[in-house]
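Thread: Modeling a multi-component assembly for a lab meeting

Hi all, long-time lurker, first post. My supervisor asked me to bring a structural picture of a complex we are working on to next week's group meeting, and I have zero experience with this. I have the sequence lines for every component (553 residues in total). Could someone generate the structure of the whole assembly? Inputs are pasted exactly as I received them:
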Amino acid sequence: MAYSEKVVDHFQNPRNVGSFGSSSDVKTRADIGVGIVGAPECGDVMQLQLKVTADGVIEDAKFKCFGCGSAIASSSLATEWVKGRTVDEALQIKNTQIVEELALPPVKIHCSVLAEDSIRAAIEDWKKKNGIAVAEEANAH
Amino acid sequence: MAVKTPIYLDNAATTRCDPRVVEAMLPYFSEKFGNAGSRNHRFGWDAEDGIETAREQAARLIGADAKEVIFTSGATEGNNLAVKGAAEIYAKAPAGQQGRGHIITCTIEHKAVLDPCKRLQREGFEVTFLDPPADGVITAEMVRAAMRPDTILVSIMWANNEIGTINEVPQIGRLCHEKGVIFHTDGTQWVGKMPTDVERDCIDLLSWSGHKMYGPKGVGALYVRRRKPRVRLEALIDGGGQERGMRSGTQNVTGIIGFGKACELCLVEMEHDRERLLKLRRRLEDGLSGRMEVVQVNGHRDRRLPHIANISFGFVEGESLMMGIKDIACSSGSACTSASLEPSYVLKGLGVGDELAHSSLRLSFGRWTTEEEIDYAIESISKAVEHLRKLSPLYDLYKEGVDLSTIEWQHH
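Re: Modeling a multi-component assembly
Sure thing. I ran the full set together rather than chain by chain. Output:
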């Protein structure tokens, strides 16, 4: 399958790779929202960590991804898009926008869904840690 | 180290046609272009002579008599003809009834055996699909344990196309002859690479293919035993009665000429090729295992074909790994590289675990693979794995000492 130039670029030069600490460290930090979605036996796991200010602005984002090139590109792109947005703005990001930006073929749509899910899961985690009610739609998928 | 890229390490998928094969084929396109069925003129005779020479070349490669070789369009057709054709003839009850007989095969056969067996299951036959052990080798004992009084056919591949493991074929063949059961083996990855003798190995039906052994695509052969026992098959394709009535249709003369030449060359070069391929495989497997942690060579440690290496690289997904080694042509067991979006059923069948199945590469070598290409592949794969492990949340967890199987993943 031929990949779009943007997928290849994100694959070769992934943005914002990393984490704000080990899985046990970030679990207790209230300024970090962690979203881990997917499963190894399905062939993709995305981990998104968001550093969020007290008033809900995403200051920084880091990702790690076990998955195909499109999954890596989708999560890399997600980190670029959420940075600087408020959590509510970030929740507006739709997987279809990722599909469009990366020109993903139909068989790779699930990669974009996973990226959207990881944003939701990370924000949900941050909200829970900060005692903010989580909207029902956060579990839409 | 000047290596010409892309490097072809997918010889289990198909091989380059040997230039000597191409040369042998050429006259049969536009000079000796006759139909082998034209019995009354020079053009027909030339084509027929060419085909009979090829039949002898093919027979010699497997220790058979030329009369026992049926030309097909490839191993898929050979497997279909062998399995369905034998089941139909040796059935215990007529079509439309149940209890037509019992067939033994295994879960990691090629789909060209599995799917015909599944069809027969719907048509009144009972099929036992043996589960392989973790090393992937189907033994005669496993087949013996599955035998029943109404068993009519056993179909077990000689060597597996994904992991290269070698099944206990002579022993299974002997068992079948002892019990009076027809034995078919899919020899696609074996024949031409490894010594084959249908008498010694007690084989009744053997299918193989030209393009896996430096011949052209679209041609293969099925060995059908003529004595002790005389094996009969119901044809799948009816018509002009070519190939002893078992495979009607004008013969693919050029393809068959190439196939015969490829068989002849394999017989001559087998020992040399085999030693060389084994060295290459060891160089690759040792090289990669030496460079990185959590590298698993799949399949039996020793009982494996010399030209196939199937290796899982922990914490890295196969399709992304292939993307990182774009100048190396190979295959992966990852779901993302398959049309079905399922990870390799062969690796799953071995209990390798889905995650290591997603992380696997199949690298397979051929007559023209060089040590320099292997070294280039080791370098290139190591770099790509390193890059992807830096991205992998699973590698982090592994490094933190977390057992991945204890985590509750969010499945989709």
